[in-house]
Amino acid sequence: MRITNQRKIILEELIKCSHHPGADEIYNLVRKSIPRISLGTVYRNLEFLAASGMIKKLDFGNGQKRFDGNIEPHDHFRCVNCNTIEDIPFTMDIMPLDENHMWVKKRIIYGMRLEIYGLCAACSAGK
Amino acid sequence: MRITNQRKIILEELIKCSHHPGADEIYNLVRKSIPRISLGTVYRNLEFLAASGMIKKLDFGNGQKRFDGNIEPHDHFRCVNCNTIEDIPFTMDIMPLDENHMWVKKRIIYGMRLEIYGLCAACSAGK
DNA sequence: CTGAATGCAAAGCCTTTGCATACGG
DNA sequence: CCGTATGCAAAGGCTTTGCATTCAG
């Protein structure tokens, strides 16, 4: 694995972010350090970093992929009132998968994508 | 609401499907009945039907939207090998939400969007 | 040195849209 | 009749890719 400046800065910027930026936003962030970087390089490196397991590639279904420097497995909670997205810390504690269920036994589960929506702690306190 | 032949056939084809086809597949299905239908019309009607709540528009993050004639709330299982998408019959049986968990108690849960991925029954049998 | 990574630009894929025409109610 | 829906084709947004050049190890 080759450590180019482009690759290094892209990873650094992404780790700094906590808000799941898209490729275009990462491109603009990195351009502050490397003005001549190309969008293609950003895409190639994001792909490379995701394939190496150093970042995560997400899809919230808005037509644009999002990237996450936090590679710990975690899901997302979206508040329908204030519209913030917070990480769900331990999905398996909150919604444990029943390993003994026949449906589960018939398949091999690699993982899941979960988004819970409702009112966050702050917004539900007011109701 | 205007019932054109195109709209009718698109809805009928989609209700017949159980495998969450993309717009291109629906286009090809409908073309058997209406050979001169345009792809634009298919997209416009899928959008219209989804907005009217008669079908559901899904996004599994493969770059292509999928459509579902089954509007009952249900989740999906995606096989990473054969790429089919099947319905999860009773999510609450397989992954029950722990109502007593502190994280849950602090929030008001309206619903969730869940996608489990892995190998389907057929594909996992061969491994 | 040498192959992997880059910049640039063009192309690809899915989807949306503008416009004149057709057609449902 | 009238306005919505259609067909056609062009354009749009995001992403990928081909190619010559540069650069890390």
Account of the 3D structure:
Two copies of one chain form a homodimer. Chain A has helices at residues 5-16, 23-31, 39-51, 91-94, 102-105, 121-125, and strands at residues 56-59, 65-68, 75-79, 85-88, 108-119. Chain A is an alpha+beta fold. Chain A folds into two domains: 5-68, Arc Repressor Mutant, subunit A; 76-125. In chain A, strands 4-3-5 form a three-stranded mixed beta sheet. In chain A, strands 1-2 form a two-stranded antiparallel ribbon. Chain A binds chain B through residues 59, 61, 65, 77, 80, 88-90, 93-98, 101, 103-104, 106-121, 124, 127, and chain B through 59, 61, 77, 80, 88-90, 93-98, 101, 103-104, 106-121, 124, 127. Strand 5 (108-119) of chain A pairs antiparallel with strand 5 (108-119) of chain B.
Short description:
2 copies of one chain form a homodimer. Chain A contains 6 helices and 5 strands; from the N terminus they run H-H-H-E-E-E-E-H-H-E-H.
Percent in helix of chain A: 25-40%
Report the radius of gyration of chain A as a whole number of Å: 18 Å
Rounded to the nearest angstrom, the distance between the terminal CA atoms of chain A is 53 Å
> Which architecture of the largest domain in chain A per CATH?
Orthogonal Bundle
Please write the string of helix (H) and strand (E) elements of chain A.
HHHEEEEHHEH
**Envelope shape of chain A:** globular
Number of strands of chain A: 5
Number of helices of chain A: 6
Structural class of chain A: alpha+beta
CATH level 1 class label of the largest domain in chain A = Mainly Alpha
Largest sheet: number of strands, sense, barrel closure of chain A: 3 strands, mixed
